[in-house]
Automatic annotation (TrEMBL):
Classification of source organism: Bacteria, Bacillati, Actinomycetota, Actinomycetes, Bifidobacteriales
Listed SUPFAM superfamilies: MFS general substrate transporter
Descriptive protein name: Major facilitator superfamily (MFS) profile domain-containing protein
Swiss-Prot/TrEMBL keywords: Membrane, Transmembrane, Transmembrane helix
Subcellular location: Cell membrane
Organism field: Bombiscardovia nodaiensis
Predominant location category: membrane
Stretches assigned to the Major facilitator superfamily (MFS) profile domain: 32-427
Keyword Cytoplasm recorded: no
Highest taxon of source: Bacteria
Keyword Plastid in annotation: no
Transmembrane region(s): 33-55, 67-89, 109-136, 164-184, 190-212, 251-271, 283-305, 317-335, 341-358, 405-426
Topology within the bilayer: Multi-pass membrane protein
Amino acid sequence: MSTQEQTASVAVNPDDFDEDGIDVKHFNVARWIIGYLAFWIIMSIGFAMVSQVLLPQRIKDMGAANPTAVLGTMTSIGSIVALVANIVVGALSDLTKSRFGRRTPWLFWGAWFTLAFYLLMGNMGVIVGVVIVLWLSKLSFNMMNSPIYSTVSDRVPKRYRGTISSAIGFGNTLGLAIGAYVGAKFIESVHLGFTIAAICMFISAMLFIAIIPREPSNKDEVVVNKEGSAWKHIVYSFTPPLHAPDFWKAFCCRTLLLLAIQMLAGYWLYICQDYIGLPKVTAAKVVSTIAIFQMIASIVAMFVGPLSDKIHKRKPMVVLSAALAVVGFIFPIVMRSITGIYFASVFVALGQGIFMAIDQALNVDVLPSKENAGKDLGFINAATTAGQSAGMALTSIIVSATGTYIYIFPIAIVMSVLSVFFVLSIKSVK
């Protein structure tokens, strides 16, 4: 064997790579955990400030006759925008070639656009303007989120996906809790709250780019595009993965459970005001307390991912999360009081935290093709956006039709139970 061949054999050791060709030997799991935590905690703070407190209150302050219907309509159409954006961005990032890699440019520019749209949303003087800017922010927001999710498939070894998924879930749950708490403090200063939220969204992306190892340049790589052109690839991006039943079972599980959870999480402020009958300031204080419970729940959920990696099982964690959420949905029915809301928020937060800690690992495990990871993850991660936005839309429809929030709780229970049937039917994951 020549010296050159010996060097090559030493430089490329098959044992250093997992079955997906990802370098395991040089993977700094701590650095990646810190990067994901920085992004998800700070980004979720900004997102929750707006979605859970500032935007609902802004609509009321602008004099909407039926704020529940307005918020529901905004978010339902926004969910369609987000769903399309998630899929298209994921597919186009698969084709992107640059010296910064294929995901980083989308994340970078998505952060700038999101900063601009959030600032603009907080300063719009008419409801129509707020609605349009919200939809634009859904587009830019998914320019950030879609590449982040794809990095799990691209660059995280399979043995660490549960741990990384737990970091994502923990960061998301903790950030949402902090955001709801902080947002409630700006119930009387909505404009300032929007500004802080916008800065959080921007900083989160920049920190992620700065912390994780730089994405390798793919400028000279041959990117395979079976469709022949970017436009055709965009059309192709809306072609769902075929002959992948486990993929769709995971999709349905995720959509249903997040839909159920968001039916409450997106309306805590209104539930406190209109279902329990609390005044605005008191309702904001209750939302702040709920946020504290969510923070505690996020700490518990932090251990789920590493445990899943250790026992090599995902499904039991999903079943547990759904069961906890169901318990939470029962409390407002039997205890129509602040105490009932507090109990509900604790169990729902635990269910959401555990699910978010494990679902990214589950999603990547059921991907039918690594080559189309961005596109396919765009579909399954659209379940997050669709579940969050459609949950609020569904609540709006129910409340507008019935005049009460009482019916949203049993409907959420049914959806959670159905999500369990879907995850248990997955065959390729334990």
